[in-house]
Design goal:
heterodimer; A: alpha/beta; Rossmann fold; Ubiquitin-like (UB roll); de novo design (two linked rop proteins); 3 domains; five-stranded mixed beta sheet; four-stranded parallel beta sheet; 13% strand; B: alpha+beta; 13 helices; 25 strands; elongated
C-alpha cells in the first residue's frame, strides 16, 4: 500500500508531481526540481506581501475546516511584541485520510519550504511540525530532509522542530496539538482566545495543515492568479486537492484533482470504479467526521468546499471512503462511533458519555437486541452532541450517525425487526 | 477609578456589571443561578461540564456562561427551549455512569447532581439497564480523602485546585473517553496541608472526607457561621452540628480572608468543642474541696475577694477567648481601679501557606484572637506574668488549660474544662466555648470577625462576656450586658481601635479594626 500510482490523465499533479521519485526527497534533488526558489522569492518580500499573494490565490485550509489561509495569517499581530510561532499540523489521524503522509514521504522539502515561507509571512522565529506518532517512516524522512536543508542554511534564523505525537486522534485538533507541544495532556482549549492571540506557550500562533503549506511554494513561483485559475466549479474553491480514496474501489490511493472535480469521475474513472459486480452504495467524502452521502448524492457531488456542502456533507480533509452494496452501513457507522468513543479526550460531558453511549446502542442494534425506540434515541443523543462542546469531536461522531439513519434507515430497521442476521461485535 | 459598567439582560432582568465579568457571575447579580459543575469562582475556568450552556441572542450556538464575557446590550436566556434541553441532555449524560447510590452517599442532600436533576432532569433514564455502568474501586487518595470514581463527573475542580491553587499538581485526569477518572500521582499522596478543600469543591460525592464518612445526612445538619480557631488567620467557617454535636467544619467564603478555602488543620480542629468532661456548674472551695454552687454564690465569692484585694492582680488569659470576654475581664480590674497585669501565650506550629492565594496560610500562631488580646492591653510576657502570679493577691485564669500557677493569693479559674492544676482554684466559673456563644475575634491583620452560637452550652456554663459583665456589675461598675452585641458595643466605646464598629456593621464577614497591620 502506498506506493504511488502513475498519475491519471485527468489528475492535476501539483503536490503529487514527484510522488515516487526517491531523488525528490533529497535536498539536492529538490533544488534540481526548482525547490527553495519560492522561499528565496518570499524572503525578498515584505511579510505582508506574501500574505496578500496567498490571499489572492484563494488557498483554503486543507486540514478540514477550509478557512482561507491568507486571512488566517493576517490575524497574527502586525506589530510584533511577543515571539510568534508556526505550528504545522502533520498529525493526520482522520480515518480515511492519508495525503499528508504521502507529502512527507515523497516531498518533505515541499513541506519544509512551505513552512519556512509561512513562518516568514507571519514573522515566526520558531516552527513546530507535529507529526503523528504512527508515522515512523515519514518522520525519518522529514528528519533527514530537515537536517540536510538546515545544513544547507536555507532556513536562516528560523528554527524548525519536529515533534512526534503519541497516538491520540484529538491531538490533531489545533488547540490540543498546542497543549501537546507544551508537554500537557492533549485537551482542546476553549476559544477565545484564538491561537493568533494566544496559542502555543501563550504566544501568537498560526497553525496550518501539511497540504496547505505544501501548496504555498507553487503559488509563489507560479503566481496567485494561476492558482486561482485552478477551479472547475465554485470560484471560492481554488487550486488542487489531494483525495485519499479508500474502500471498495478498484484502485484506492491518493488522487490530486482540481477543485470542483466530480466525485463520480474520481470514483468511477480515476479509481477504476467499484469492485467487479458491485455497485456504489455510499461515500464519506471528507474523512470520517462528515455526513455520509448516498449513491445519488455521491454521483452528483462536485469536489470543492461549496459543492460537497451542497450535497449535505463537507469536503473535510479529503478522505474519500467508498462503500459498495456489500457494506453493512450499521456496522460501518458503529465502527466510526467506536473510534470516536475511544478517542474522546473526556473533557466535555456530551462527548465523553455520548460517544460511548452511541456506540453501545449501535452495538446492541447489530447484536439483534435493538429496541424500536433506539433510532430516535440515537438521533436525540446526536442532537445533544452537536454544537455544544469545546471541539467538534462529538459533532464528528454524531454526523455519520444522523446521516446514516437518515439515508440508510431500512438497514437499521432490518436489524431491529430481526430481518438481518445479528453481528456479534467484539 | 470605577470600572466601566457593561449593561446586559439576563432572563429579562437588566444588570450592569464591570467589563470582563463572566455571564455566569453577572447572572448571579440578576438573581439567576445558571446550573454548573466545573465552574468555581475560586478556580481557573475549565469550561468542560457544558452544563451552563445559555442562549445568547444573535449568537448561532449556545455559549457556556462560565467562559463568556459580558458585552454591552447582550441578551442572555437561560430558560430558552434550546438551553433547557441542552442542560437536560448534559444531566442525562452525567447520570448514565453515575451510580444511583444516593442513600449511602455522604453528598446526598447537598449534591449538585441531585439538585439540578431534581430541578430539570429527565424523569426516567433512556440508558438501558442492560448496559453496565463504569466501575472502578474506591481509592485512598490521602490522609483524609477518599475517591469514589464511580460517582465522578470529571468536572476537574479537584485537579485545578491542586494544580493552580495549592500548586502541588498531584491529581490529573487519567485515561480518555468514558474510561477517564481522576488519577493521583503514583508516588505521591493527596496530603497537602490544604488538600481537604477538594472534598468541598467536589460537586458530587466522589471525593469524601474520611473524617465525615457516613457520619450524618446533610439534611440533618444545622449550619452556623463561625470563625476558625486553628490559627491567627481567622478563616471564615461554617460549623455543621447534628443534635448539638459539631460534626464538620467547612469554609465559608470571604474574599478578604480565606476566599473559599480552609486548611486541614482548621478543618479537623473541632472535636474539642464536643468534649464531654466540661465544667457544668460554678464551683467554690469549701473546706479544701471544690463544691458545685449557683452563679449568685460564685459571684459573691469573687466580688468579696476582689473588694478586699491587695494591689496586685494577674490575669492569665487564653488567646482563644472572645474579644468581648477579654474586654470585660479587663474591665473588672480596670474600672475597679485595681493594679493588674494581663498576659497570654500562643502555641506555635508550622506555617503552611496556600500558594495560589496571597496572604492565606495556616499561621504559625495557633490562636484566633491573639491580636484581640493585644488590642485590649494583654501582653505576651507570659513567663513574667506567671512569676508575678506567685506573689499576686488575685490570679484570674481565663480558659488557659495548662497553667502551672502557684500563688499565695486567690485563684479564680474561668474555663470550659477543669484541668488538674485548676483544682487548686478558690472559685471555678464554667464558661461556654466558641461553638456555644456569640462573640468575635480579631485576626492577625486586625480584622474583627463575628462568630455565632452553634449549640447550647452545657449545664450552667455561660459565655465569658456574661460572666465578667455580671461580676463588673456586682462590683458596682455599671449595668450588665444582655447580649454579645451589647458586650461588643461596650468594648467599641472603650477601645479606640474598635470605635465605630458594631455587630451590625461587622456582619458575618467582618471589618478591619483601626489598628496598624503587622508587616
Amino acid at each position: 500500500m502506498g506506493f504511488p500510482h502513475k498519475p491519471h490523465a485527468r489528475e492535476t499533479v501539483l503536490l503529487s508531481r514527484y510522488f515516487g521519485e526517491a531523488d525528490a526527497r533529497t535536498y539536492k534533488g529538490w533544488v534540481k526540481r526548482g525547490g527553495y526558489a519560492a522561499l528565496e522569492q518570499a524572503r525578498a518580500m515584505e511579510p505582508a506581501r506574501v500574505i496578500d499573494i496567498v490571499k489572492e490565490s484563494g488557498l483554503r485550509g486543507r486540514g478540514g475546516a477550509g478557512f482561507p489561509t491568507g486571512l488566517k495569517w493576517s490575524f497574527m499581530p502586525k506589530e510584533k511584541k511577543k515571539p510568534h510561532y508556526l505550528c504545522v499540523n502533520a498529525d493526520e489521524s482522520e480515518p480515511g485520510t492519508f495525503k499528508d503522509r504521502e507529502i512527507m514521504r515523497w516531498t518533505p522539502h515541499a513541506l519544509l519550504e512551505g513552512t519556512a515561507i509561512a513562518a516568514h509571512a507571519i514573522q515566526a522565529e520558531v516552527a513546530y511540525i507535529y507529526i503523528r506518532g504512527e508515522f515512523t517512516e515519514p518522520l525519518a524522512i522529514m528528519e533527514k530532509a530537515l537536517t540536510d536543508a538546515r545544513a544547507a542554511g536555507v532556513f536562516g534564523d528560523l528554527k524548525i522542530h519536529l515533534h512526534r505525537g503519541a497516538g491520540a486522534y484529538i491531538c490533531g485538533e489545533e488547540t490540543a496539538l498546542m497543549n501537546s507541544i507544551e508537554g500537557k495532556r492533549g485537551n482542546p482549549r476553549i476559544k477565545p482566545p484564538f491561537p493568533a492571540a494566544a496559542g502555543v506557550f501563550g504566544m501568537p500562533t498560526t497553525i496550518n495543515n501539511v497540504e496547505t503549506l505544501a501548496a504555498v511554494p507553487p503559488i509563489l513561483t507560479k503566481g496567485a492568479a494561476w492558482y486561482k485559475g485552478l477551479s472547475l466549479a465554485s470560484p471560492k474553491s481554488t487550486g488542487t486537492k489531494l483525495f485519499s480514496v479508500c474502500g471498495h474501489v478498484q484502485q484506492p490511493g491518493n488522487y490530486e484533482v482540481t477543485m470542483g472535480f466530480p466525485l463520480k469521475d474520481l470514483v468511477y474513472e480515476l479509481c477504476g470504479g467499484m469492485r467487479a459486480g458491485r455497485t456504489l452504495k455510499a461515500c464519506i467524502p471528507g474523512g470520517s467526521s462528515v455526513p455520509i452521502l448516498n449513491r445519488e448524492e455521491t454521483e452528483a457531488c462536485l469536489l470543492d468546499y461549496e459543492g460537497v456542502v451542497e450535497r449535505g456533507s463537507m469536503l473535510g480533509s479529503g478522505g474519500v471512503i467508498v462503500f459498495d452494496d456489500s457494506a453493512d452501513m450499521v456496522y460501518q457507522i458503529m465502527r466510526l462511533a467506536r473510534f470516536y468513543a475511544h478517542e474522546s479526550c473526556a473533557q466535555c460531558t456530551q462527548c465523553r458519555e455520548g460517544t460511548a453511549w452511541t456506540t453501545k446502542v449501535l452495538e446492541r442494534i447489530l447484536a439483534g437486541q435493538g429496541k424500536p425506540a433506539d433510532l430516535d434515541l440515537l438521533l436525540d443523543l446526536s442532537e445533544n452532541m452537536t454544537g455544544k462542546t469545546i471541539c467538534v469531536l462529538s459533532d464528528s461522531c454524531a454526523a455519520p450517525v444522523v446521516s446514516g439513519i437518515k439515508k440508510f434507515r431500512n438497514e437499521f430497521e432490518d436489524y431491529l425487526a430481526g430481518r438481518r442476521k445479528p453481528v456479534m461485535v467484539a | 477609578m470605577p470600572d466601566e459598567l457593561v449593561n446586559l439582560t439576563i432572563d429579562g432582568v437588566p444588570v450592569g456589571v464591570p467589563k470582563g465579568t463572566l455571564v455566569i457571575e453577572a447572572a448571579k447579580q440578576a438573581g439567576v443561578l445558571v446550573p454548573h459543575y466545573c465552574y468555581h469562582p475560586g478556580l481557573p475556568v475549565a469550561g468542560v461540564c457544558r452544563m451552563c450552556l445559555v442562549d445568547i441572542e444573535k449568537q448561532p450556538k449556545l455559549a457556556i456562561a462560565c467562559a463568556t464575557q459580558v458585552a454591552e446590550g447582550m441578551v442572555v436566556k437561560t430558560q430558552s427551549p434550546a438551553a433547557k434541553s441542552a442542560r437536560t441532555g448534559v444531566l442525562e449524560f452525567l447520570l448514565i455512569n453515575h451510580p444511583l447510590d444516593c442513600p449511602i452517599c455522604d453528598q446526598a442532600g447537598e449534591c449538585e447532581l441531585q439538585d439540578f436533576t431534581f430541578q430539570e432532569g429527565r424523569a426516567g433514564t433512556r440508558y438501558s439497564p442492560d448496559y453496565p455502568k463504569r466501575f472502578n474501586p474506591v481509592e485512598d487518595f490521602g490522609p483524609d480523602v477518599l475517591y469514589v470514581p464511580n460517582r465522578c463527573i470529571l468536572c476537574t475542580r479537584c485537579v485545578r485546585f491542586m494544580e493552580d491553587v495549592a500548586q502541588e499538581p498531584v491529581l490529573n485526569v487519567s485515561e480518555r473517553g468514558d474510561r477517564a477518572y481522576i488519577g493521583v500521582h503514583p508516588e505521591a499522596r493527596l496530603d497537602h496541608p490544604w488538600a481537604g478543600n477538594v472534598v468541598d469543591l467536589c460537586p458530587v460525592g466522589s471525593l469524601l472526607s474520611k473524617d465525615f464518612l457516613h457520619k450524618a445526612r446533610a439534611w440533618e445538619l444545622d449550619k452556623t457561621a463561625s470563625v476558625c480557631t486553628g490559627c491567627s488567620q481567622g478563616c471564615n467557617v461554617t460549623l455543621d452540628t447534628r443534635e448539638n454535636v459539631v460534626v464538620r467544619v467547612r469554609p465559608r467564603p470571604n474574599l478578604e480572608v480565606n476566599r473559599y478555602f480552609i486548611c486541614d488543620h482548621g478543618r479537623m480542629n473541632y472535636r474539642w468543642m464536643n468534649r464531654g468532661d466540661r465544667i457544668e456548674a460554678p464551683l467554690v472551695k469549701r473546706g479544701g474541696e471544690l463544691h458545685a454552687t449557683d452563679w449568685p454564690d460564685a459571684f459573691e465569692r469573687v466580688t468579696t475577694v476582689l473588694r478586699g484585694a491587695g494591689p496586685r492582680i494577674v490575669a492569665l488569659v487564653s488567646p482563644r477567648a472572645s474579644t468581648e470576654a477579654l474586654f470585660f475581664a479587663r474591665e473588672l480590674f480596670r474600672a475597679g481601679g485595681l493594679e493588674w497585669t494581663g498576659a497570654f501565650q500562643v502555641v506555635m506550629g508550622e506555617e503552611a501557606p496556600l500558594a495560589g492565594v496571597p496572604d492565606l496560610a495556616l499561621r504559625a500562631e495557633r490562636a484566633p484572637n491573639a491580636r484581640g488580646a493585644e488590642l485590649l492591653g494583654y501582653g505576651r510576657e507570659y513567663a513574667a506574668a506567671l512569676a508575678a502570679a506567685e506573689s499576686a493577691a488575685v490570679v484570674l485564669v481565663l480558659d488557659e488549660p495548662d497553667v502551672p500557677v502557684r500563688t499565695a493569693g486567690t485563684l479564680i479559674y474561668a474555663g470550659t474544662v477543669l484541668p488538674e492544676r485548676a483544682r487548686d482554684a478558690d472559685v471555678v466559673l464554667p464558661i461556654a466555648n466558641v461553638a456555644e456563644e456569640d462573640g468575635s475575634f480579631v485576626n492577625r491583620d486586625g480584622r474583627v470577625q463575628r462568630y455565632a452560637q452553634a449549640k447550647p452550652a452545657p449545664g450552667m456554663a455561660r459565655p465569658g462576656w456574661w460572666v465578667f459583665s455580671e461580676l463588673s456589675a456586682a462590683l458596682g461598675q455599671g449595668e450588665p450586658v444582655a447580649s454579645a452585641a451589647e458586650a461588643f458595643a461596650r468594648a467599641a466605646q472603650a477601645v479606640e481601635p474598635l470605635r465605630g464598629l458594631s455587630y451590625e456593621r461587622l456582619g458575618f464577614t467582618g471589618k478591619p479594626a483601626a489598628v496598624a497591620v503587622p508587616a
